[in-house]
User: What shape does this take?
Amino acid sequence: MHPFFTILLKELLIFFRSTGLVLMVIYFFTAEVYVAGDGVEVEAKNISIAIVDKSAGGISKKIISSLHAPEFQTPKFYTSQKELSDAIYDRDIMIGLIFDEDFEKNYYKHLNPQINILVDSTTASQSLMALGYLQNIVMDFNKMQLPITMKIHKLFNQNATTSYFMSLSELLSVITLLTVILTAVVFVKEKENGTWDIMLLMPVNPKIIILAKSFSQIIIVMIGTFLSVGIVLFKGFNIPLNGSLLNFFILTFFYVWTTAGLGLFIAAVSKTVTQIAQLSIVIMMPIIFLSGAWTPIYAMHPILQTLSIFSPLRYYIEGSESIFFRGSGFIDLLPYFGGVILLGIVLYWYGFRKIGKLF
Amino acid sequence: MLKIKDLTVRYKKKIGIKNLNLEVHKGEVIGFIGSDGVGKSSALNAIAGVLKFEGKISYKGMSYTSPKEALEVKKQIGYMPQGIGLVLYDTLTVSEHLDFFADIRDITIDAEFLEYKQNLLKMSGLERFLQRKAGELSGGMMQKLSLICTILHRPSLLILDEPTTGVDPLSRIEFWEILKHNSQNYGAISIVSTAYMNEASKMDRVVLFDQSTAIAIGTTVELLKEIEPFVYEKTVQKFPNSLTVGEATYSLEKLDIPHQTPILESLFFINSLKHNALLPALKISQKNLAKNTNKITIKANKITKRFGKFIANESVDMELHRGEIVGLLGANGAGKTTFIKMILGLLPIDSGELSLLNKKITSAKDRQELKSKIGYVSQHFALYDDMTVRENMLFFALMHKISRKKAKELIGEYADELGFREYLDDMPRSLPLGINQRFSLAVALLHDPIILCLDEPTSGVDAIARRQFWDLLQELKIKRDISILITTHYMSEAEFCDRVVLLKDGKKIADKKIAEFYEEFPNAHDFEEIFLEYYR
Assistant: This one.
């Protein structure tokens, strides 16, 4: 058997024997992605609301009747503003509406009727979203008077379901993180255990050793990605697939090589697994930040926008989103493939050389 | 004064020490002797009150059964954990250390204390290095400083865990002098563990440990007298229930051979005989390896290695021939491992020349083809922990481009010869060190190397396994005509080598055949004493 396969099989065997590592990888590819997609909720949902209605008219009733599930809980009614604000202070209520006594009178007289709103904005994004909803409701109500109405079309993610976006970009971040750490660990674990020296004394070309070791971890990450896409993305979140899944896996494969290069670099400079953890965070944070995984690139400072050209994750995220949501064909994906492969060649070459020096 | 009753320490999966009973009197120095993992540290930690234990310990009438209850006693305890310089701070100087330890122990600085301190510094030879940082001291000086810091507050119960392991012989003597002085003049009890058998003579009484139990307690004279009837002159004859290791044959039944004076190690051999815990007979099969016309396998010429300012090896010359065992001896930090790593190409050589098997080494490429001629057993027998013994061996065989079929045959062969067949499907870390030692040797021999490099293959291994390992190396040398380069910090193991290269602070201070050493110092009893002369 060629030494390449001997080493490859050995690494896979060792991986599947170390229960802790297997569990960690499974966790990251399933639960972590699922929690990110499901748990990070920025839509207004199930908000507690209370009302003090002193106008006792039909208009306020009509407005109140539009406050319903799933955005709001059934409204509670209070008789005074004091009671309402107490409830908010006690965290029973998040949003309170107060209709003045002359609300209805002013409405008919076109005297700028006013609804007072009290908001507990501890959870800022939730409350902002809720306010948006309230505004929409009031605007809808005003429709007759307004000459312009807005008609919104949401493209690619028709319901603007955040779980689509969040779970996919979390998966891509997980792939980045795991590839870097796993690749670095297979090398550094040998340094820690002292087997590194014995490895160096084998009559095998060091290049083969490096390639086989990093390839074994790439296989593991690819299997994990496959499971995650199938189980979490498709089954769990029903993510639409408008493009070719094959393209996605090819892109992933190239991307994983790219990040494996980073792993090699980290492995070359760390002596212990703890050091890997520290270094990975320092090196990967900017890459994830600049990729647009958390903030859209156009919202960044111009300097950061330029820097983001060097984040391979940027091309990977944009490419993957194009495949899943936009359904782009291979030709349209070429820039992303190009970006990933180009950066990949540089990073892997650098990491390879760096660790090769230790041989 | 110190009474230990039925002391048992249990860990999650194994027992540290079981049913230790011991009484120690004022001023006594007690030695705990045994290899790694036999329960010495467990017992010491329990006595020091830093470990949970079963049974009862009482000191000066205060008894404790847990670390919590030991709080009151701890004030009187001085404890030095295993490992060199663990209680020291690298960036503090010697005098700052003394001030610091006096401070935290709340010692009144009076004339008496100053005299006591001065005396300690004088005895240890640290007087001249008051302004030197601890990180820049040698291993021996670090241990002496640690000891002084530990006894600075005059504890009446001293617990020292392997304080002299890997320390140079001269420092070890000074270390023992300080300790003796402390016991005699201040009546302190000292309990010291050690892996060196010959230190037993420095102790009032010894406790021998094997497999988590104390197998013998008493003075060395008493203990040796007890086993006298079982020790015979070395014989090649085979008797049932007997054992031949080193220079003697041991048997529980009466043999018709003249008796021989036992040595302390004999106690362990006889204990194994009694418990039927004998090692299988080991052997090595004959092999005719490539006849290299040149006798010289390794030739190192003025090899130097620096790490920053620190010089690890300075102009070391060495030659190794076929069919020769050369021992690289020295204390911790003498540069043994660095030297072996340079020979192997694991560390670049800063200056000097190296030829392996008559080929000058100038680049990594030169080494590539030589790799199949060299075998290596690393310190602590590093192997893959997540693979069984069999899988480990198969992996290394395949890496050496041995066919799968041939590899399986070889594994079976070595497993039988070196007696680890029953462990083939176990994970290495679950095995005793002695088994790991033999199986690591088998891994290093799979590809029939001509040069075998062994880095401290005997440290931590019990007495009987150590002896057998040396016998095995002798056989290997004779039957395969290979060169063996071995490092060790056991000075007594020099006896088993053909030639010894003695290193001190990175420099070679001696390179002679064993007989030549004895010719030079005819009055010396053992190698410990010979090397002491060189260290002076």
Summary: DSSP finds 16 helices and 23 strands in chain B. The interface with chain A takes residues 341, 344-346, 364, 368-369, 371-372, 374, 376, 378-380, 382-387, 391, 395-396, 398-401, 404 of chain B (CB under 8 Å). The mean pLDDT of chain B is 87.
